[in-house]
Write a structure and sequence with these properties.
Blueprint lengths: L4 E10 L2 E10 L4 E12 L2 H8 L2 H7 L15 H6 L3 E9 L6 E9 L5 E5 L3 E2 L11 H20 L15 H12 L17
Antiparallel strand pairs: 1-2, 1-4, 2-3, 4-5, 5-6, 5-7
Helix pairs in contact: 1-4
Length: 199
């Protein structure tokens, strides 16, 4: 059976969970399947970091004031600190060949406590016009990295770890919990039992 090539079209992050639209391309069978998948596993930190690298481009393309303070080509830790009020929640790819490009979905947390939703205008990766985005090549590289992480999430089980599940399968923790429960006073009874202390 032919294993299809997967092409990520859109990825959206919400509550650390991912919704993805992708195309399965069957070259031998000469057909495609469009798939939308809502996933319950939390995303890996590598995907969050890849999305965060889009922040300087969100500011630059949207001509935000912070764009003058950061280096979109090679952002430093200080640059990313300047952009901490921005949250990239996803991206959507469009076009093909020389017209291929991306729209970034983001939010900016305002000082008044409100959230500004941002849909960054579509940027072509190979635009040669006079008003083309100067860092389009770098932007494409970051989107490629995001695609890689989304693919690993979907097909290689590269997920994050829920902190509360850290000791879920630890037999020692199960025994410890059982011991602690045994020393709890029963409802309606007074108890003078003390938890024994090792000497």
């Amino acid at each position: 059976m032919e294993i299809p090539e997967c092409r990520i079209n859109k990825a959206k992050l919400s509550n650390e969970q991912l919704t993805v639209e992708y195309t399965e391309v069957f070259k031998d069978g000469n057909y495609k399947n469009d798939v939308t998948k809502s996933c319950k596993q939390i995303v890996h930190n590598d995907l969050k970091l890849a999305l965060a690298m889009l922040k300087p481009h969100v500011a630059a393309i949207c001509e935000m004031p912070e764009a003058r303070e950061v280096n979109a080509l090679e952002p430093t830790d200080a640059d990313m600190k300047t952009l901490e009020s921005y949250i990239v929640t996803g991206y959507s790819k469009g076009g093909s060949d020389e017209n291929a490009g991306v729209t970034i979905i983001a939010q900016k947390l305002l000082k008044i406590g409100k959230t500004l939703n941002l849909t960054v205008p579509f940027v072509q990766f190979e635009d040669e016009s006079s008003n083309a985005y100067a860092y389009a090549v770098i932007l494409k590289a970051i989107i490629d990295r995001c695609d890689y992480e989304v693919d690993a999430y979907l097909f290689d089980e590269k997920w994050g770890i829920k902190q509360k599940d850290l000791f879920a399968d630890d037999p020692f923790m199960e025994v410890q919990t059982a011991v602690e429960e045994s020393y709890k006073p029963k409802r309606g009874r007074k108890t003078t039992t003390n938890i024994p202390v090792e000497s």
